[in-house]
């Protein structure tokens, strides 16, 4: 049996018109790092709080280490949690906030000091050790909340957007610290975020939710390469995948602005004869501008005028109208184009996805 198991878990808050979480099924292995992602309000925190025991489970079963947890008190579930609103004890210093839980657990004083010193050091909080929360910035408070959780030797860590208030640089370094910590401690971790970069870089597997329903569970690259539907395809990856309303005539794709593109038989045949009600999806990096690709994929060649550019340093995003919508191509820093330039580009046909317009399910 897996280490944590959620079986058809539902949550309906009292007086709510509908479920906040519906039929959530998931098996988590010991030591796995799982990320829950999805837009605001999709039920990530609710699910995490049900696992922690801070919210009742309306229906379904939750098992941790083979034991049914539905009625078990939070303190008896063997978990440490970092909350989204990181409520700290206002009258306690950073050090006291971090050590409080250990004192309650009757850990010997020398052990507590060792743990707290370690946490304060890796979280970069040495300067603030004797300050109270009201005299800390949001990011510093968030790190204290993280410290409170990591000093406990819990088998399960639940973290609800623990890095959301940190600046970009600190986020990257804390991301690495949490990953390192996870490898060292070997604790099973569920990490909630709406930042898909965090999910992609940290998690063994990602759970994508929408409106309280799990859309797809998989390894980061599985979700990126093989999204099950348009929602997942659009959620994972930045810039977002380009989507076009299209129809098919023979081997020709017709876009809504009248443009056409010839695709190989091997791609068209996968549609199984479906010719209308289709959405074509392609990621920005699979739209190519360099000479070699223009030659290899010449059947798909198109042209457009650049309307906007985003220079990122290592790569550039080019914006142009094509196929009835704004398209974003992601090109290397060596392919310099300016607003107003006319460019030629091709689609790498093997990287094209098709979705059913009605169900939004991925056809391949
Ligand atoms: N105590 C509550 N009573 C009623 N409805 C609630 C309660 N808490 C959350 N909800 C609703 O349940 C849904 C899921 O909320 P939840 O906090 O789990 O979302 P989330 O995915 O964590 O979002 P965010 O990214 O904004 O934190 C939302 O529609 C929210 O309004
Ligand atoms: Mg939340």
Describe the 3D structure:
The protein has 364 residues and is α+β, with helices and mostly antiparallel strands. The chain has 2 domains: 4-235, P-loop containing nucleotide triphosphate hydrolases (Rossmann fold), CATH 3.40.50; 242-356, Nucleic acid-binding proteins (OB fold (Dihydrolipoamide Acetyltransferase, E2P)). It contains 10 helices and 20 strands. The protein has a 6-stranded mixed beta sheet with strand order 6-7-8-3-9-10, with helices on both faces. Strands 13-12-11-14-20 form a 5-stranded antiparallel beta sheet. The longest helix is centred in the middle third of the chain and has 18 residues, at 168-185. It is globular. The mean pLDDT is 94.
Summary keywords:
364 residues; binds adenosine-5'-triphosphate; binds magnesium ion; six-stranded mixed beta sheet; OB fold (Dihydrolipoamide Acetyltransferase, E2P); 26% helix; alpha+beta; 20 strands; single chain; 2 domains; globular; 31% strand; Rossmann fold
Describe how the helices and strands are arranged:
Elements: E1 4-11, E2 21-28, E3 33-37, H1 44-52, E4 59-64, E5 67-68, E6 79-82, H2 94-104, H3 109-122, H4 138-150, E7 156-160, H5 168-185, E8 188-192, H6 196-202, E9 205-210, E10 213-218, H7 220-225, H8 230-235, E11 242-249, E12 252-255, E13 260-262, H9 265-268, E14 278-282, E15 287-288, H10 291-296, E16 302-311, E17 315-322, E18 325-332, E19 342-347, E20 353-356
Parallel strand pairs: 3-8, 3-9, 6-7, 7-8
Antiparallel strand pairs: 1-2, 1-4, 4-5, 9-10, 11-12, 11-14, 12-13, 14-20, 15-19, 16-17, 16-19, 17-18
Magnesium ion (MG) binds at residues 44-45, 84, 160.
């Amino acid at each position: 049996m897996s280490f944590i198991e959620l079986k058809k878990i539902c949550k309906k808050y009292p007086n709510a018109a509908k479920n906040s979480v519906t039929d959530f099924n998931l098996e988590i292995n010991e030591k796995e790092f799982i990320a829950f992602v999805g837009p605001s309000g999709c039920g990530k925190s609710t699910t995490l709080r049900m696992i922690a025991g801070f919210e009742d489970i309306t229906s379904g079963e939750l098992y941790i280490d083979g034991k049914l947890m539905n009625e078990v008190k939070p303190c008896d579930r063997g978990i440490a949690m970092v909350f989204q609103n990181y409520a700290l004890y206002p009258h306690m210093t950073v050090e006291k906030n971090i050590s409080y839980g250990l004192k309650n657990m009757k850990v010997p004083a020398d052990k507590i000091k060792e743990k707290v010193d370690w946490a304060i050091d890796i979280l970069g909080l040495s300067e603030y050790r004797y300050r109270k929360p009201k005299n800390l910035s949001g990011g510093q408070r968030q790190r204290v909340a993280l410290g409170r959780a990591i000093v406990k030797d819990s088998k399960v860590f639940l973290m609800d957007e623990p890095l959301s208030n940190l600046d970009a640089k600190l986020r990257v370094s804390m991301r690495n610290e949490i990953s390192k910590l996870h490898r060292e401690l070997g604790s099973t971790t569920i990490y909630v975020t709406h930042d898909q970069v965090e999910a992609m870089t940290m998690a063994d597997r990602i759970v994508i939710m929408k409106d309280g329903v799990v859309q797809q569970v998989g390894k980061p690259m599985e979700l990126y390469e093989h999204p099950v539907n348009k929602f997942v395809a659009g959620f994972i990856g930045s810039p977002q995948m380009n989507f076009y309303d299209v129809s098919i005539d023979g081997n020709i794709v017709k876009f809504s602005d009248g443009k056409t593109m010839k695709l190989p038989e091997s791609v068209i045949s996968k549609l199984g004869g479906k010719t209308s009600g289709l959405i074509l999806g392609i990621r920005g990096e699979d739209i190519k501008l360099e000479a070699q690709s223009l030659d290899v994929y010449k059947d798909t060649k198109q042209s457009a005028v650049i309307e906007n550019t985003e220079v990122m340093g290592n790569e550039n995003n080019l914006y142009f109208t094509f196929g009835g919508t704004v398209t974003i191509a992601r090109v290397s820093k060596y392919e310099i184009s300016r607003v107003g330039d006319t460019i030629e580009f091709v689609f790498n046909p093997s990287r094209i996805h098709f979705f059913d317009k009605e169900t939004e399910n991925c056809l391949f």
